[in-house]
Amino acid sequence: xxxxxxxxxxxxxxxxxxxxxxxxxxxxxxxxxxxxxxxxxxxxxxxxxxxxxxxxxxxxxxxxxxxxxxxxxxxxxxxxxxxxxxxxxxxxxxxxxxxxxxxxxxxxxxxxxxxxxxxxxxxxxxxxxxxxxxxxxxxxxxxxxxxxxxxxxxxxxxxxxxxxxxxxxxxxxxxxxxxxxxxxxxxxxxxxxxxxxxxxxxxxxxxxxxxxxxxxxxxxxxxxxxxxxxxxxxxxxxxxxxxxxxxxxxxxxxxxxxxxxxxxxxxxxxxxxxxxxxxxxxxxxxxxxxxxxxxxxxxxxxxxxxxxxxxxxxxxxxxxxxxxxxxxxxxxxxxxxxxxxxxxxxxxxxxxxxxxxxxxxxxxxxxxxxxxxxxxxxxxxxxxxxxxxxxxxxxxxxxxxxxxxxxxxxxxxxxxxxxxxxxxxxxxxxxxxxxxxxxxxxxxxxxxxxxxxxxxxxxxxxxxxxxxxxxxxxxxxxxxxxxxxxxxxxxxxxxxxxxxxxxxxxxxxxxxxx
Length: 514
Ligand SMILES: NC(=O)c1ncn([C@@H]2O[C@H](COP(=O)(O)O)[C@@H](O)[C@H]2O)c1NC=O
Description:
- One of its GO terms (cellular component) is cytosol.
- This is Bifunctional purine biosynthesis protein PurH.
- Residues 1-145 form the MGS-like domain.
- It comes from Pseudobacteroides cellulosolvens ATCC 35603 = DSM 2933.
- With 514 residues, this protein is α/β, with parallel strands linked by helices.
- It folds into three domains: 4-193, Methylglyoxal synthase-like domain (Rossmann fold, 3-Layer(aba) Sandwich), CATH 3.40.50.1380; 222-352, AICAR transformylase, duplication domain (Cytidine Deaminase, domain 2), CATH 3.40.140.20; 388-506, Cytidine Deaminase, domain 2, CATH 3.40.140.
- Helix content is 37%, strand content 18%.
- The protein contains 18 helices and 21 strands.
- The strands form five sheets. A six-stranded mixed sheet has the order 8-13-12-11-9-10, sandwiched between helices. It has a six-stranded mixed sheet with strand order 16-21-20-19-17-18, sandwiched between helices.
- Helix 4 runs parallel beside helix 8, helix 8 runs antiparallel to helix 10 and helix 16 runs parallel beside helix 17 (468-475).
- The structure holds the ligand NC(=O)c1ncn([C@@H]2O[C@H](COP(=O)(O)O)[C@@H](O)[C@H]2O)c1NC=O.
- Residues 8-10, 32-35, 61-66, 100-103, 124-127 line the site of ligand FAI.
């Protein structure tokens, strides 16, 4: 039986109707300042919390409900005669239901230019304390933290005069989920305020559900898509779907890979991705030309792929894209004419992402789940270390070749290791991804390039342990190479370059990606 309920809510949506229903069932209602006013103004009979505690709310609301008269009433076990005797002697009356939602910490920190003191004042203390007390004593107390549960609770009360133990247990579980999410956001916010790489002793992460997925990587795997709170600028989680069926698990993963690579470029660029590896990447003066070059880079692999562009898609580009089947096109915007063309196809997903080039914020984590644990590192935000660049061969690359080499290095950075990329004219010609030895990656990239590799450049994500990749490059007519350097055997590759008149530069920065 619910005889007394304590209501203390920041989000007052639906609270008047809920309280009216409780009152109609003869439940006595206690409330804190603002909630008291809202209910009282709506004609509901409410007892002010101060009349229960015998204390005024004080310290700007920092202390309202933190009192044994409240917590004794919540925590006393009704089945324990000692507890009941003690509270009777202390003049504490049981509280059977609490309806609480917390100070809007999340909404506060999501505001632009929020001051630390503002965030701090929005850390709720009394609310979580009551929520946790009530949830611990769920057998005797119903605890409602989510306004979407109001209707269900009222229905149960109407039909069986009480809330079932099963419902009370679920509501209690929800409380700990909620307070954990709330506290994790606080910890994350404060950790980011410290402003340096911070790898805490315990890693508590929190995400919010975006949607259920039809299935995971494979149809027999269940999957859900979650997003981080805040920090979603330029991320796949902020993309707006303008057309097409729901994104799949693999679509999201591939689109994420395409966006990460696209962020390396400021000039008009198109990235095509298959199975999380780039298959065609090109930069040009305009997006149409960049698309044509990305398509021609590898017209076979792009089929059924993900295309990401960093400029508006116009009708000319849309008509070109429409000639093949692609799963997703993602861009900052689409002209109306382009939308009309692209949306003729039922199966293409059209995604709009403003701020598509927004960099990953400094201090962001990159994580990989391993069985029984989690690997955490900071995001790989660099591409080459300009101070570390060394021209190691007799032949020096010219300015144009340096640009070409840097283009290829950006692409190989986002290719699964071992990876090799061959490129010319800011267009990939061959991508050799994810091989267990480097020469195989080189052979694949060169084979994709075919005749076009003559005069092209080659990038490697890590150093050459042997001169075999240079030999293969020379045979394919490659004129310049970029790689991190740092192998004990660097000299063998340098000698091989010198033998064939190839220019090679070392960047001092490796880009493994697994
Ligand atoms: N300090 C306390 O004793 C306390 N008790 C309840 N609160 C919070 O005060 C809010 C409601 O305040 P009001 O009814 O004055 O609008 C709720 O979000 C509730 O979680 C408190 N505030 C913050 O800690």
